[in-house]
Amino acid sequence: MAGLGGHLHVLGPSLRCRLRHARRLARITISMILMVLIFITIAGNVVVCLAVGLNRRLRSLTNCFIVSLAITDLLLGLLVLPFSAIYQLSSNWSFGQIFCNIYTSLDVMLCTASILNLFMISLDRYCAVTDPLRYPVLVTPVRVAISLVFIWVISITLSFLSIHLGWNSRNMTINVNYNISKCKVQVNEVYGLVDGLVTFYLPLLIMCITYYRIFKIARDQAKRINHISSWNAATIKEHKATVTLAAVMGAFIVCWFPYFTVFVYRGLRGDEAINEVIEAIVLWLGYANSALNPILYATLNRDFRTAYQQLFRCRSTSYNSHDASLRSTNSQLSRSQSREHKGQEEKPLKLQVWCGTEVTALQGATDR
């Protein structure tokens, strides 16, 4: 027995050292994952905004909602995710009580705005597919602007107004049960049910119905106009856009459904009923949706994929052209101009097309 006790005593420090090393390695791994997620969220949504702003083919009323969604995800990556990562890694909130209220309000507001943007996108796609002739009458700039105002009014009401007035608190007092080292949204029974239904479950049901009808109509139209090439090309393009938006919505469901399920359960049973590890996992799974949207646009939508390529080629070509002009001599310039003149019939001026200048003059080459 004495020998066994001595053996355990020797293994004890070694085991503790291994556990500390494992924790340190896990901490570093989680830190890298969160940093990459935040970077992709910010950079990806900036690219979406630039692509829509610099590409005329993407400047449509539908893409107003996509830009609104990208701005929402961008704000989430700038204003919420860095503090969430620090809080997650340190397990301690060190930014004060007042900023905790602002942080949680921003979190709820941006998540609400995301799903409402997707909800409006689904309604827009439904009008475009089910009644394309009346679409310009149904979807006007004024109605799009009203819809965007509605999205942000509802989001602010369910976040800043509710939290600062204590509507989400269990004891109906503002922030009395907040621990100074903890910072997360309080949830009571009423707030959990109302916010879950208004923010997620009811819009999710409507979106599922609209996309089901869109795909049913798309399938019927594809069968009827199979032998008409012009209509077939236009319809295929429209249906590809619909599939892209449906994939974006599907990613949102996969990412946020676990979180809202836990959120409603917290309201009904209390914070003690949810394990903190599970709560952190479903929260960051929801945050990951903000990084997935730009990737989905580039992967599934040809117009967005082309716009991304044009955006990066414009920057690269402009930089190389400027650098070459600083280093070239008069003879090199003349030879370059002669070569461009000889090859003008074979290659279009890509710099002008990519950067959006003289698009009218090169419209035929661009279309080809």
UniProtKB/TrEMBL annotation:
Pfam families: 7tm_1 (PF00001). Residues 44-297 form the G-protein coupled receptors family 1 profile domain. Residues 321-336 have a biased composition (Polar residues). GO terms for biological process: chemical synaptic transmission; G protein-coupled receptor signaling pathway, coupled to cyclic nucleotide second messenger; gastric acid secretion; positive regulation of vasoconstriction. It is a multi-pass membrane protein. GO terms for molecular function: G protein-coupled serotonin receptor activity; histamine receptor activity; neurotransmitter receptor activity. SMART domains: 7TM_GPCR_Srsx. Its main location: membrane. Keywords: Cell membrane, Disulfide bond, G-protein coupled receptor, Glycoprotein, Lipoprotein, Membrane, Palmitate, Receptor, Transducer, Transmembrane, Transmembrane helix. Residues 337-347 have a biased composition (Basic and acidic residues). It is found in: Cell membrane. One of its GO terms (cellular component) is synapse. Gene3D superfamilies: Rhodopsin 7-helix transmembrane proteins. InterPro entries: GPCR_Rhodpsn (IPR000276), GPCR_Rhodpsn_7TM (IPR017452), Histamine_H2_rcpt (IPR000503). PANTHER family: 5-HYDROXYTRYPTAMINE RECEPTOR, HISTAMINE H2 RECEPTOR. Belongs to the G-protein coupled receptor 1 family. This is Histamine H2 receptor. The lineage of its organism: Eukaryota, Metazoa, Chordata, Craniata, Vertebrata. The gene is HRH2.
